[in-house]
Amino acid sequence: MTAQTSTSDPAAQQVTLHTQGTLPAPCMAGRDFLSNLDMSSAELRTVLDTAASMKRGEWRNVKPLLGLSLAMVFEKASLRTRTTFDVGMYQLGGHAITLSNQEIGLGTRERVSDVARNLERWVDGVMGRVYLQQTLTELAEHAGIPVINGLSDMLHPVQLLADYQTIEEELGAAAGKRVVYIGDGNNLANSHIHMGMLTGSSVTVVTPLGFEPNGAVLQEALRQGADVTLTNDLSAIDGADVLYTDVWISMGQEAEADRRRKAFQGYQVTPTMLDRLAPHGIFLHCLPAHYGEETVPEATEHPKSRVFDQAENRLHAQKALLYHVMGGMKPRW
């Protein structure tokens, strides 16, 4: 990628790309992104490098998605996913349209396959934040345009792109770093295991009995020789490079709230727990935080916390993903 620095006004220097013609070739053009494993380690490296470049301002005023549209399908409420995909499309020259489940009724008002066949006639990509991974699989099977997983019950791959961008900013290359995930073995835990497979980081999931990550995800990681550990021993936190947690009660699990709160006693991330990390260690949480449950405000505001940097990186990482999936597509009009 060719870059230049303006010297006409040293007080306001900016690094910008020469022209759109110097952009890197999209490495996942036209492909679905339902899982972090839908990209290779080399493609992940390209996306993270692009995200870092975008964050440095090197893509300012470059509009590689000009004339393209993204349909954003939401079965679940959203702050970060909706805002960052919407703003990201705008900054890259494209347009995003938000479709709530009240408007679509995936699988109830209309078949998922019919929704897919409609959307592919109007827009250039779909991002879905849904309850079931199967919904995304069906959308991808029936739509001839890229489908991006903005969250499902099984995985949260776009979040992990931002997470590893943050890890690299703070700690350098992820390979060999010890990432400890504590709490519910949910979609975040599954995606952390996938990222360990791609980056060579060491991933430890600390969770109570009965709340482990998906067995197939764990078995595949072990089969491929990934450094993944499953335990309920809280001493695994000691000396970690990264400590990560998520809510104990996800959307749709409210009926299990009392049982889950009881099971996760002792797993709350506090400042005292952060003191057990390596001196350079950092704390991450994908947000929203349920303070008083999986963590406390004193942890997200702790000097080791990079929670809000992590939230910012949702914008940069997803812009990079959007470019590498949708870049090079021709506008329909």
Describe the structure.
The protein is an alpha/beta fold and 333 residues long. Mean pLDDT is 92; it is low at 1-20. The two termini are 29 Å apart. 37% of the residues lie in helices and 15% in strands. It has helices spanning 41-55, 80-91, 101-104, 112-122, 133-142, 157-171, 187-199, 215-223, 257-263, 271-274, 297-300, 307-326; strands at residues 3-5, 15-17, 69-74, 95-100, 125-129, 147-151, 178-182, 202-206, 228-231, 242-245, 282-285. The longest helix has 20 residues, at 307-326. Helix 2 (80-91) crosses helix 12, helix 4 crosses helix 5 and helix 6 (157-171) packs across helix 7 (187-199). Strand 8 (202-206), helix 8 and strand 9 form a beta-alpha-beta unit. It folds into two domains: 28-55 and 63-155 and 315-326, Rossmann fold (3-Layer(aba) Sandwich); 158-251 and 259-312, 3-Layer(aba) Sandwich (Rossmann fold). It has a five-stranded parallel beta sheet. A four-stranded parallel beta sheet has the order 4-3-5-6, with helices on both faces.
